[in-house]
Design brief:
The protein is mainly alpha-helical and about 130 residues long. The protein has one domain. The protein has 5 helices and no strands. It is flat.
Length: about 130
């Protein structure tokens, strides 16, 4: 498996774990609006990750086989983030807008944390 494929699998796994924690928080705490906002934003973030992976695959296939490279899907990722925000604006009592915004950037936080972990792991293996 390629390194990019392994990274994407790790990201999916981490996001699914976070979603499970958010669902437990939504079900068992009194901060239902915050956790529902986190769930909404993180689902948008997961969709954005999926569209980015799909765009990467199409781009690499186009480069490898000499085809045309299409869009990487920026408009659909922006629309997904906008949809998450619209949901939180439509139902402000049930879904926290701030938590939705935090959930939308969750994948970027996961990528940075994974990068740090992998860098530290590689430095420890070199010793």
């Amino acid at each position: 498996m390629s390194e990019l494929h392994l990274m994407n699998q790790r990201y999916f796994k981490y996001i699914i774990y976070l979603l499970a924690i958010y669902v437990l928080g939504w079900g068992f705490t009194e901060y239902r609006d915050v956790f529902l906002g986190l769930i909404t934003g993180t689902v948008c973030s997961l969709f954005n990750l999926w569209t980015m992976i799909r765009g990467q695959k199409r781009f690499s296939n186009a480069v490898e086989y000499g085809g045309k490279t299409g869009s990487l899907g920026m408009l659909s990722r922006m629309a997904a983030a906008g949809l998450g925000v619209l949901i939180s604006l439509r139902y402000p009592e049930e879904v926290s807008l701030v938590a939705t915004a935090i959930g939308i950037v969750t994948i970027h936080i996961v990528i940075m944390i994974d990068f740090l972990i992998q860098t530290l792991r590689n430095k420890l293996e070199e010793r």
